[in-house]
Backbone:
């Protein structure tokens, strides 16, 4: 049998090399145990690192979507409560016109109720939220409704009245207007000013297009309602005709025609607005469920990312312990091998 | 047999013990020297009774050859692995925070926030700011890559100088060995020295050796002769500065071009081949990937004619010196990542208007998409956000081509680099283990064992004592004889 030769240098070098490699592994195992994550993710995952980074990036993107959805949700919540306030103002008009049409005193009360309602509806439609007028559609930098009293709408109404009847509503001749003529005036002249093209010219600066929001990475929905919706127009018209025609010199006949038109408009406005609330509710629902989906996705992505980067704490600490044992053994061996020299026995 | 003969033999023995002791002491002195090959002094018989000491050098040729081959491979692989660690730290960062992918995600988020509230000019500014950050990251990453190439070029130049220097030293060492062999003197120290030089050379380039008469050595590297009687010239033209289109010059050994390595488990042997590989392949691919990200951004954020009137798409938020025409689709434009910029028309710091991002129209009124000037017009912003997820065609020359979204291409670039690095690091561990294994076998075989030398010293002491005793005995016998005669 060949007796192999071995040099002293190679004995000590072998120990030195194994010690160096164990110590460098020790440093990385220590970091893994203390953080619970891979020490060098790229080195361990290799070609999968991009996937890991995408997962992290996607989580961040989805979280941003949840944040921005919060803005859309709160806009719709504000819209929702604004619409219900408008509904209640419209109902005020409805109930007042239902009762007193006869006495002059009642009429001025009615006119002032309608006036307050009109001011309120205007203010509510001009609500701004986070710097945007929420009922302006995409035209969100301008308030949607021009104030009636000072704006072109009142002038247009007065002109229309004079043109149609040949005198103003405060004129004594206004007493004589009968119900049918008044009905015609309201249906053919006043109505187009509010429900037709006059609305955009004299009253509203809002855009028909609602604000579009991206609520998931691939889905975009509208998240606002425009002041140009029929319900708002009808509510505004109902209050305007009440304010205008219950304050002039009109006779009882004409007033009853106005009151019936008001009732019809307000009633229909309440119905349309309820529909609108339903639509906003659906949109809110859509955003909420998008958020739920996003959160579920974030959870899944998070789990996936975690499974890529996490270190089993038991495995890591076992590895650490065995490395420490290995290094200690190396120390002990080095000490013993250093003693193992013929020099100690020859003297 | 006479007493005089006995005396002579004992004297020779003393002399031989002296020589042998000197060998033992040389061995002991060099016991920690890796480049030392152990010697032993053996007695040889000539005419009856006469013994001379001959000194043998315990070289292990095959092991030595294997060990320097492994050294070449190992030093190449370590170089690749170190360079990739470097590139990772400047291009990806510890957790990917420096990658184009991370900046792209931030930019997407800024766009999304702006699209949720397009009337808010501050959010527009922040989206443009985020675009500027993204562009700066691309510019910085691109110049880091080019700086790395320049510093590798410097390293190659230094290594070539070192190689030439080693070859001229090798010339001296080889000459000493040859002269010693012809003169018949002890050449062992010269051989050790020559082997040590050979080791240094094989760290730089792969070396195979051809032995000729009188221990003359010829060194061949690949197809080129490194050393034959005289050192051959290794030449290299260093370039002081690197740009994305700079092509580095080749290293020539005796006029023959040294080939660069390929693959993460590199085929290169020696540091030069590995450095050439990183300078000409790895960094060029990474630059190409950044250039493609830049091209993707310019393409995805281009302005289109909203009327469908046939006007060509022109560069929008992101532009480059060749703008406003778009770079050709599907092919890498070298250096685009370095020259891409945010259009000044969008940048509030340069008097621009961030709202152009919402409305369009940086290239004239025909490109305005938000024709009514609506403040909450979000369609365009939403489309941009979604486009980061829509596939476009990337150039396959960058290592990760095909139809991908910009976001996944950017992540793919990280994958490419980290995959390369991880493979290189694993290969480095394997090659290092092989080298260590071969070297330790070599040192085990050729190194000095102190215990053995000590025991040999004890033997020599005994021989010395016995020879001295012998001389005294002969002396006494002669004295006795002379006394009897007197």
Residues:
């Amino acid at each position: 049998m060949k007796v192999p030769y071995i040099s002293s240098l190679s004995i000590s070098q072998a120990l030195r090399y194994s010690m160096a490699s164990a110590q460098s592994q020790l440093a990385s195992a220590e970091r893994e145990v203390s953080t619970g994550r891979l020490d060098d993710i790229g080195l361990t995952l290799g070609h999968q690192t991009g996937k890991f980074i995408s997962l992290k990036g996607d989580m961040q993107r989805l979280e941003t979507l949840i944040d921005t959805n919060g803005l859309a949700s709160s806009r719709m919540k504000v819209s929702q409560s604004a619409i219900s306030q408008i509904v209640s103002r419209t109902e005020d008009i409805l109930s007042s016109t239902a009762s007193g049409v006869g006495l002059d005193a009642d009429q001025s009360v009615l006119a002032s109720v309608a006036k307050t309602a009109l001011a309120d509806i205007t203010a509510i439609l001009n609500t701004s939220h986070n710097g945007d007028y929420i009922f302006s559609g995409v035209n969100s930098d301008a308030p949607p409704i021009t104030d009636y009293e000072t704006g072109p709408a009142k002038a247009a109404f007065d002109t229309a009245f004079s043109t149609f009847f040949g005198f103003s509503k405060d004129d004594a001749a206004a007493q004589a207007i009968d119900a049918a003529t008044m009905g015609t005036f309201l249906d053919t002249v006043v109505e187009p000013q509010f429900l037709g093209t006059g609305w955009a010219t004299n009253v509203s600066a809002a855009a028909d297009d609602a604000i579009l929001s991206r609520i998931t990475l691939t889905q975009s929905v509208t998240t606002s309602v425009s002041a140009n919706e029929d319900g708002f127009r009808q509510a505004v018209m109902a209050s305007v005709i009440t304010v205008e025609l219950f304050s002039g010199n009109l006779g009882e006949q004409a007033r009853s025609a106005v009151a019936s038109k008001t009732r019809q408009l307000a009633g229909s406005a309440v119905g349309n607005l309820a529909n609108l609330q339903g639509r906003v509710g659906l949109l809110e629902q859509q955003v909420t469920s998008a958020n739920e989906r996003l959160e579920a996705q974030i959870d899944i992505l998070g789990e996936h990312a975690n499974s890529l980067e996490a270190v089993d704490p038991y495995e890591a600490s076992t590895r650490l312990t065995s490395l420490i044992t290995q290094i200690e053994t190396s120390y002990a061996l080095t000490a013993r091998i250093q003693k193992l020299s013929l020099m100690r026995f020859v003297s | 047999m006479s007493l005089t003969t006995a005396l002579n033999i004992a004297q020779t023995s003393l002399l031989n013990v002296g020589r042998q002791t000197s060998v033992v002491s040389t061995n002991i002195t060099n016991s920690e020297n890796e480049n030392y090959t152990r010697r032993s002094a053996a007695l040889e018989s000539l005419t009856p009774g006469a013994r001379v000491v001959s000194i043998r050098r315990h070289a292990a040729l095959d092991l030595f050859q294997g060990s320097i081959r492994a050294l070449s491979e190992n030093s190449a692989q370590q170089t690749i692995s170190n360079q990739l660690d470097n590139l990772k730290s400047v291009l990806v960062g510890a957790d990917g925070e420096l990658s184009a992918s991370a900046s792209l995600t931030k930019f997407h988020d800024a766009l999304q926030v702006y699209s949720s509230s397009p009337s808010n000019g501050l959010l527009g500014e922040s989206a443009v700011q985020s675009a500027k950050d993204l562009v700066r990251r691309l510019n910085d990453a691109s110049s880091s890559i080019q700086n790395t190439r320049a510093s590798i070029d410097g390293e190659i130049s230094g290594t070539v100088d070192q190689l030439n220097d080693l070859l001229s030293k090798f010339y001296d060492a080889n000459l000493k060995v040859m002269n010693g062999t012809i003169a018949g003197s002890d050449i062992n120290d010269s051989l050790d020295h020559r082997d040590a030089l050979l080791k240094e050379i094989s760290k730089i380039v792969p070396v195979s050796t051809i032995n000729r008469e009188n221990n003359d050595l010829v060194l061949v590297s690949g197809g080129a002769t490194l050393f034959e009687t005289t050192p051959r010239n290794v030449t290299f033209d260093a370039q002081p500065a690197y740009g994305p289109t700079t092509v580095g010059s080749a290293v020539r050994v005796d006029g023959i071009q040294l080939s660069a390595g390929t693959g993460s488990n590199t085929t290169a042997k020696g540091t030069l081949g590995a450095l050439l590989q990183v300078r000409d392949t790895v960094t060029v691919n990474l630059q190409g990937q950044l250039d493609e990200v830049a091209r993707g951004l310019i393409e995805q954020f281009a302005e289109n004619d909203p009327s469908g009137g046939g006007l060509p798409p022109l560069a929008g938020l992101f532009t480059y010196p060749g703008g406003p025409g778009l770079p050709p689709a599907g092919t890498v434009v070298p250096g685009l990542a370095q020259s891409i910029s945010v259009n000044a028309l969008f940048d509030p710091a340069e008097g621009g208007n961030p709202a152009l991002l919402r409305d369009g129209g940086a290239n004239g009124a025909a490109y305005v998409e938000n024709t009514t000037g609506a403040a909450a017009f979000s369609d365009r912003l939403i489309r941009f956000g979604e486009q980061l997820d829509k596939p476009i065609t990337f150039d396959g020359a960058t290592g990760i081509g095909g139809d991908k979204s910009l976001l996944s291409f950017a992540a793919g670039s990280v994958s490419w680099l980290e995959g390369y690095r991880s493979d290189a690091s694993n290969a480095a561990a394997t090659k290092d283990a092989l080298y260590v294994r071969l070297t330790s076998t070599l040192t085990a075989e050729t190194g000095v064992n102190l215990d053995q030398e000590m025991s040999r010293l004890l033997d020599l002491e005994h021989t010395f004592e016995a020879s001295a005793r012998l001389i005294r005995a002969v002396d006494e016998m002669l004295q006795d004889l002379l006394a009897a005669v007197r």
Remarks:
- The longest strand of chain B covers residues 39-45.
